[in-house]
Design goal:
Elements (H helix, E strand, L loop, with lengths): L1 E4 L10 H15 L8 E4 L9 H9 L2 E8 L5 E8 L4 E5 L1 H4 L17 H12 L4 E5 L10 H6 L3 E3 L18 E3 L11 E5 L12 H5 L7 H22 L11 H12 L3 E3 L1 H8 L2 H6 L3 E4 L3 E2 L8 H11 L4 E5 L1 E2 L13 E4 L7 H6 L1 H29 L1
Parallel strand pairs: 1-2, 1-11, 5-6, 6-9, 9-10, 11-13, 12-14, 13-15
Antiparallel strand pairs: 3-4, 4-5, 7-8
């Protein structure tokens, strides 16, 4: 029996690698490894958010580079990015500008900055990296990548030729963009954004209105942020010749998608598809008997490019059954049945508080996986006995 284990992280509970190990533990308790007939291949996954660096390095090798950067509020923190064997840099903006780096009472997208993300990019450029994969999920920011651009040498000047400060609340002050000091190696590097967000930059379905409240924005702040993004994009159009107003995905990560498109000439691709390709997952699934995936919470949003969706699509192509074992199953999780997922399960086996479920996450995930594979192994044994009788 060949089993591919390819989960996302269980946010706030388990990394993708830890989740894969827990699933493996459950399988090995349920299925006897007779004569080497059990083969388990672990491929931790990510969709461009938290855990992307670890997932890709786990799949293809490489190293993690530690670097000090500014967090979303401009304080120095220790961060990281990955460098693959072919010298591709893998960056997750959440490691420098993520919502997970600040407390709920500190959330304020008028002030938070992507400067630290720019510092990660700059560090990788200085190491000689020429290809970049940048996951932009989990942002705490709404500054259209202005801070990122400043870290790379762009000057965002007001009417008095002074550089603006950090945060989405400063963008309305920008009168001119000066790129004369932009780091020169950007021109010869190739940047790919890993994101499945399709939102435009501005408007009722844009970055500020859809994602601003999740980052601490009040209704009044949302209006200010949206107007400021619109103003900044008009300056980008005038000074850089890039019209970002109708580009799907430009609103990702508070407009960091737009900033990367404008300042480093990036292209946008599906985050999960990038990880699947880099990990060579399709070749692994092609020869599998079972595929297991999962995430912290599976619901109607999972069909919009989350890990179970991506795994289901690949497995469906090769006619392989997919089991999704998640922390919780929310409204609309059934939509995954139509995109290649065979069955879905929650690890919560009784009424319990979220804190308990998180604390016991590894144990519960291993138990649920064991239960499922006891059924699978028992059914396979029974079928074998029936065939032997005949």
């Amino acid at each position: 029996m060949r089993i591919i284990i390819a989960p996302d992280s269980f946010k706030g509970c388990l990394s993708a690698k830890q989740a894969a190990l827990a699933m493996e533990k459950g399988i090995k308790k349920a299925v006897h490894e007779d004569n080497g007939n059990l083969e388990i291949v672990k491929v931790p996954m990510a969709d461009g958010g938290e855990g992307t660096v670890e997932a890709i390095i786990e799949a293809v090798g490489g190293s993690t580079i530690a670097v000090d950067v500014l967090d979303p509020l401009g304080k120095s923190i220790s961060s990281f990015y990955g460098v693959l064997p072919d010298n591709t840099a893998v960056i997750e903006m959440a490691a420098a500008s993520g919502l997970n780096l600040i407390s709920s009472c500190q959330q304020n997208p008028l002030q938070t900055t992507t400067y630290g993300t720019g510092q990660l990019i700059l560090s990788a450029l200085q190491r000689g990296c020429k290809r970049f994969i940048i996951g932009i999920g989990g942002s705490a920011t709404n500054d259209c990548g202005a801070g990122m651009a400043q870290a790379l040498g762009a000057k965002l000047l007001d009417r008095d030729n002074r550089e603006i400060g950090f945060g989405g609340g400063e963008l309305n002050k920008v009168a001119k963009i000066d790129l004369t000091a932009l780091y020169p190696d950007i021109k010869t590097a190739r940047f790919t954004i890993a994101s499945d967000v399709k939102n435009l930059l501005c408007g009722p379905d844009g970055a500020s209105y859809i994602y601003g409240p999740q980052k601490g924005a009040t209704p009044d702040m949302v209006k200010i942020l949206d107007n400021n993004l619109r103003h900044f994009s008009s300056i980008i159009k005038n000074d850089m010749g890039r019209d970002l107003s109708n580009v799907p995905g430009s609103g990702a990560a508070g407009g960091l998608g737009a900033g990367l498109l404008a300042f480093v000439d990036a292209d946008i691709q599906s985050g999960i598809n990038i990880v699947i390709e880099v990990a060579n997952l399709e070749a692994k699934i092609k020869d599998a008997d079972w595929v297991i995936t999962g995430e912290g919470a599976t619901d109607y949003q999972s069909v919009f490019g989350k890990v179970p969706f991506g795994i289901g699509q690949v497995a469906q192509k090769w006619g392989k059954p997919v089991l999704c074992i998640s922390g919780t199953l929310g409204s609309g999780y059934e939509k995954l049945y139509d995109v290649g997922v065979t069955a879905l399960f929650s690890i919560v086996n009784k009424p319990m508080a979220l804190e308990e479920a998180i604390t016991r996450g590894e144990e519960l995930l291993a138990q649920e996986t064991e239960n499922i594979f006891r059924l699978i192994a028992g059914t396979a044994t029974k079928n074998h006995c029936i065939r032997e009788c005949y």
